[in-house]
Amino acid sequence: MMPRVTSSGSGDITRAAGGLGRRIPEALAPLARLAYTYRWAWAEGGPDLFRAVDPERWAACGENPVRLLEEAPLAALERAAADHGLLERAAALEALVQADLARPADPGAAQGVSAEHPVAFFCAEFGFHRSLPIYSGGLGALAGDILKEASDLAFPLVGVGLMYRQGYFRQRIDAHGRQQEYWVDTDPERTPAVRVTGADGAPLRLSVPIDGDDVVAQLWRVDVGRVPLFLLDVDLPENPPAVRWISARLYVGDPQTRLAQYTLLGVGGVRALHALGIEPGLVHLNEGHGALAALELAGPHAGEDALAAARERVIFTTHTPVPAGNDTYPPGQVLEALERWLPEAGLEPDAFLALGRTDPQNPGEDFGVTQIALRRSRAANGVSRRHGEVAREMWQGLWPGTPVDDVPIGYVTNGVHLPTWLGGPMRELLDRTFGEDWLLRADDPATWAPLEQVADEELWAVRRAQRGALVEYVRARSVADRLSRGEPRPYAEAAARAFDPDVLTIGFARRLATYKRLDLLVRNPERHLRLISGDRPVQLVLAGKAHPKDEEGKRLVEGLFTGKNEPSVAERVVYLDDYDLGSAAELVRGCDVWVNLPRPPLEASGTSGMKCTANGGLHLSVLDGWWAEGYDGHNGWALSGETASDPVAQDTRDSLELYRLLEDEIVPEFYEHDAGGLPRAWLARVRRSLMTNGPAFAASRMVRDYQRRFYA
Ligand SMILES: *Cc1c(COP(=O)(O)O)cnc(C)c1O
């Protein structure tokens, strides 16, 4: 069987794969084993292999390979079992997975990290595939990309998170543009997750002190290639109903449940590693949600020395410059949530509360987990150069008397996992142009240099193919979304008729927080209409969720729907419901221009634009987050990133500049074709964007930066 880098729970994976293999025709056993690795998800031909078993079922079960094999009709399974081509592809993929797992661990520049002592990567959400919906947005997608890149680089890392049975909300937009929220249960048994058992063969049980209870938790293991991810879950009959709810949903509003989740992740996460026999070389906290891990790591009744030693093993990454994203709690509530844990950890309540205040001396200040994480980690970072600066300013109060520039918060700019986000045609072009194993060298600009020799014809063919695939996707999705809103059929089919594979396609998809300023795109209805209905038209694909409590964010969507019955809007502007990893991949592969309009400096990094530029799309963004370091004047377009004291004036200015860029530069450049039918200036910009942004924002660059600058 396949060797596993970290053995805890690996026997459970082997057993689950074996069990599934016995329930299907014998020849398909390799597919059952592959189903439990997720490595197929970013292997060439991996998704196609499962799709080939039963394309309809594959779509219907949300591309979940375990459900596919459990639910596909016997006739489909038998057909697959007799398909020699399919079996050969499965064998080749399994050989690739085995070779991948057999590689020795490579800690790179990291110190004190090895196969025996991996980095434990703590995060409240992980987004590596749509079939396990335990993520909400950017943070989860990034965490998923980091696990996959660590796997590709053979970097010893394990993930620690929570198994949310209901995940994040699902979104449906109604005919008035109002967001409806609903939740869907995921049964972990029917995903590539397995319950971890102990030495006695019974499911492992942990005890985590939350509020006044000893909460019982179990663990799930999911293999993301070489990287095991361990997910805590308290939905067990041993726990009272309100306790079972703790791990039900991501980012719940109720503060008591939130604090319980933080305790489960931080304290429970460290106990889980201990129970698994994993002694992490480093603990990498992402956001403050798991901050208590830094204290729990010191062991029970820890003294100063043990706490100081634990601090030397903790790295903290902050991902949000929005103050509301760093939640705080009244001291009474915190003490209640931790009433059982504090004495176990040997922590004085007052001293503990002081750790969570920016000014420890101020008893009137609320308690924040970010402050704990910053104080109890040996190093901290933001997620782009600019976010590093913003974070130093934002948290300067923790280091009174220290000049802003000397506040000890650095940065590692985010990156994206290329094999996950590249569309087939672009992947094929880059494989052919860059040679073997280029992905391991993707962070080196020299790797991308051969693009200089690729003919414009080839580059344009790739772009047309990927845009065409998106147009097909939008045609199908827009009809379904509109009919489900109760729209009349002619309206529902308007975009499906009009969306055109040769029309400039612009994407805007992201969390609909107010600061993302989606409304700038439609601020001037007249100019907006002219853009989409001229003889050089633009088609617009929008998607995104507003947090259920964010009424202003929801109003942004409603605003978009006011002009929906204008014929050109019905035809050329579509809003896709329920933005997720699946639709994100379609959008970033096919859009020609990716728009990002955050109010600076509130974008920590942003990653969706990186996904689009890797596919030969062009970025049009405020100079904030990653774009402040990515833009070079020729590889996309930029709006001023200056902060303004008057937000209304800033919005007006940015909106005018946005229209000017679209009308005067972007539309003409896209449609200006030479005698050979090629938009030469556009393609020069695409080439430049690929050659500059490709290496700079590859996840391999990010993971190696962590190794060199923070794990070393
Ligand atoms: C990449 C991604 C994000 C992050 O997008 P930004 O707005 O650029 O931060 C959010 N959601 C999903 C589903 C993604 O794939």
Write the layout of secondary structure elements.
Elements: H1 10-22, H2 29-35, H3 46-53, H4 55-60, H5 65-71, H6 74-81, H7 84-102, E1 119-122, H8 138-152, E2 157-162, E3 170-173, E4 179-182, E5 193-195, E6 206-210, E7 213-224, E8 227-233, H9 241-244, H10 255-276, E9 282-286, H11 293-296, H12 304-311, E10 314-317, E11 328-329, H13 331-337, H14 341-345, H15 349-355, E12 367-368, H16 369-375, E13 379-382, H17 385-394, E14 409-411, H18 418-421, H19 424-434, H20 445-448, H21 456-484, H22 489-492, H23 494-498, E15 504-509, H24 525-533, E16 538-543, H25 551-561, H26 567-572, E17 573-576, H27 581-590, E18 593-596, H28 608-614, E19 618-622, H29 627-630, E20 636-639, H30 647-671, H31 680-696, H32 699-711
Parallel strand pairs: 1-2, 1-9, 2-8, 9-10, 10-13, 13-14, 15-16, 15-18, 16-17, 18-19, 19-20
Antiparallel strand pairs: 3-4, 5-7, 6-7, 7-8, 11-12
Pyridoxal-5'-phosphate binds next to helix 8, helix 27 and helix 28.
Structural class: alpha/beta
Helix content: 40-55%
Determine Rg (CA atoms, Å): 25 Å
In this structure, how is the largest beta sheet organized? 10 strands, mixed
CATH class of the largest domain: Alpha Beta
| End-to-end C-alpha gap | 34 Å
**In CATH, what is the homologous superfamily of the largest domain?**
Glycogen Phosphorylase B
Q: What small molecules does this complex bind?
A: pyridoxal-5'-phosphate
What is the name of the CATH architecture of the largest domain? 3-Layer(aba) Sandwich
Q: Tally the structural domains.
A: 3
CATH topology of the largest domain: Rossmann fold
Please indicate the percent range of residues in DSSP E strands (runs of 2 or more).
Answer: 5-15%
> Which residue ranges are poorly predicted, with pLDDT under 50 across at least 5 consecutive positions?
1-5
Overall mean pLDDT: 95
Number of distinct beta strands? 20
Shape by Cα distribution: globular
Tally of DSSP helical segments: 32
